[in-house]
Amino acid sequence: MTEEASADVVLHNAYVVTMDGALMVLRNGAIAVVGDHIAALGPSADVLAAFPRAAQTLDLAGRILLPGFVNTHVHTSQQLARGIADDVDLLTWLHGRIWPYESHMTEEDSYASTLLCGIELIRSGVTCFAEAGGQYVSEMARAVELLGLRACLTKSTMDCGDGLPPNWSTCSTDDCIQSQKDLYGKHHNTADGRIRIWFGLRQIMNATDRLLLETRDVAQELNTGIHMHIAEIQYENQLVMRTKEIDHGTVTYLEKIDFLRSNLLAAHSVWLNEPEISHFSKAGVKVSHCPASAMRMLGFAPIKEMLDSGVCVSLGTDGAPSNNRMSIVDEMYLASLINKGREAYISGTTNPTALPAETVLAMATINGAKAVLWDNEIGSLEVGKKADLIVVNPFKWSMLPLHDSIANIVYCMRSENIESVMCNGQWIMKDQRIMNLNEGGTLSLPADMYPLCSILWGLWKLIASAGRNGKLHGYELVNITCLKHNPGIFAEVPTYPPHLFRRRYCMRRSLFIRIVKACEANSNYFKQRRNAAGVMGFNAFQKLSAAMRVIAYGISADYTDEYLRIGKDTTSESVVWANLSPSSQ
Ligand SMILES: [Zn+2]
């Protein structure tokens, strides 16, 4: 104990799971935090004796102390899109729903989305995350600084490919690189060193070779990382094989052009063959395994094979519209079960020893730290490392009894067991209270778009379900959308023949075009109604309109032309909007 005998925080009488090289676990252990780092770690009696005058001395009464979790694949911008793309294939998800949504976001949306996402991350014990790539990195940084989290932030870049929204398709290779260099200059190592700027590549289908190789070189020059979705779906591999004339998918091609480096964080990496796993292993590429997202849209990733060949595999939640629950705690549970289950699927025989609890816990902690190139400072509880830690209360219905604490952390723990979270020596959640912002107030931030999204999404789902079961009642639509005074807008809905897909497709599109048009035509009236109802806040109409466009885009990717044409028609019918508050539904 060489530190001066004063500490900011001493946590004692804890079950300390260090995740250090020796996987040391301490019963009745303690940690002393000085400033942003761990100054001492050892038996409670020793640490208490060495730091008798700590500003805060907390008896954890047997609770578990763990390193903060590292979530290595998060789309903070997508938090506001939770629920807009369930049960669709990946290309529909991407081209028809998410890109239209993301490309219509404002900076303010990105800030609100990151705050909301951050709350969920903190509640699941995450202290550090890797942003998968969004548009407004400065707004993400502003939110991360406030939340107190640690993050590797990344701008999403695309300089070619199909399906890009109109306002994204003009980004040149030079712009992609320069804008990221600018962000690096502005935000790297800010917020007391908690924010780092990485380079982003959305995926190979939207990146030219020049963008890939310049990104590789600039990231290396700046000594930072690259985050990229790699080998997500079979279609991606097939396209790469066809267009690049190689015998397997993305990884084979990336190896061929000498793109693979140890600062590359590859998200998903589901469709890899054996040689490609060894390319990753040799180059030291890190992988972010996102089990929930993989099960929804991608497939079984060869995680056990990657781990066996020495690839550093970490865990990510992906974004809210591809997982819905942004909890790394849930991902640990899923990672173990899915990869045990996959053994039976690929070899015809069960293997319950695949991905044991210790391995999964390492994926969420020290492997996560390695994946974000920060393991010299985080990922384990060790003297000298940053004080990024979480306090788990296992004495609840979900975790008792504690026959094997490590197994219970992976197989039994819920986010609700996490009581307190410290990042960089500061409590960012204490006794389940988020410290740096008003959580209730933040949750009401997206109220501008939320009621409308939910109302319209309810409408869309109703139409979609009518297509499946052939039943649709006009009055239900009227009730759901609260367009009680103008049911005429839906007059054609009950009569459309559900067995004709084309008709249904046209129906949806025309319906939403009319809604958007009507909304815009009635903006003043709508604004007044909103103010009177008191549900929406500022910029109600703009937000409303944006949300509607998002949803309309989601219904049909080729909506733009028709919208522009009809939007110019000044003879729009008038629709009276009434009773839009959710309580009146
Ligand atoms: Zn992603």
Describe the structure in brief.
The protein has 585 residues and is of the alpha/beta class.
Describe this structure in words.
The chain has helices at 44-50, 90-103, 107-123, 137-147, 173-187, 209-221, 234-244, 250-256, 274-283, 291-298, 303-308, 320-323, 328-347, 357-364, 366-371, 405-411, 439-443, 450-469, 474-481, 501-521, 523-533, 540-555, 559-567; strands at 9-17, 25-34, 37-43, 56-59, 64-67, 69-74, 126-131, 150-154, 195-201, 226-230, 264-268, 286-289, 312-315, 389-392, 418-423, 426-430, 433-434. The protein has two domains: 69-443, TIM Barrel, CATH 3.20.20; 445-584, no CATH class. The radius of gyration is 25 Å and the shape is globular. It is built from 23 helices and 17 strands. The strands form two sheets. Strands 1, 2, 3, 4, 5, 14, 15, 16 and 17 form a nine-stranded mixed β-sheet that branches. An eight-stranded parallel β-sheet has the order 6-7-8-9-10-11-12-13. With 585 residues, it is of the alpha/beta class. A hairpin with a 7-residue loop joins strand 1 and strand 2 (25-34). It starts with 8 loop residues before the first strand and ends in an 18-residue tail after the last helix. Helix 2 (90-103) packs antiparallel against helix 22, helix 3 (107-123) runs parallel beside helix 4 (137-147) and helix 5 (173-187) packs parallel to helix 6 (209-221). The chain binds zinc ion. Zinc ion is lined by residues 73, 75, 132, 229, 267, 318.
